[in-house]
Amino acid sequence: TMDNSNPNFKNIFLERAGILKRFLNYVIDLIVFVLVFGFILLILLPKQIVQDVENINPIYSNLLYTIVFGIFIGTAEGLLRGKTFGKYLTKTLTVNKDGSKIDFITGFMRGLIKIIPFCPLSALSSIPHPWQDTWSKTVVIDVRLTQFHNLNLFNEIGKENNN
Asked: What is the pTM of this model?
């Protein structure tokens, strides 16, 4: 379903991405993050800093990891206007509830919301409504199942054809 407040988007039906695709997005994004963050730690930083990071209390290191992951994924989703690395592979997309493309601030805000403890638990339902969706007024859609009736809108949110 969708918010019909924007008259330009009344002719589409947004099909929410299911819990499996949402989980795959998270796993893929996590793998990319670990590879990028690991590369930065091992290649670009001096060995003393890497050793200091390894010796941090596990509670602090998990908190640091969560914050850096939230910033990383929020930046990616903001810059890619609703996509992350996982969303490219699963053919999903974050859009505003009216079906329009999100802006950088909305994508970045979604990443920051993911830093909040227990946020992942908010996604555990058959139709996920995690805090990052609810609080940012967005929805993650399955691009293949969403019906686009307006070619301009279709191209605006990044889909190349209507198949």
From this structure: 0.74
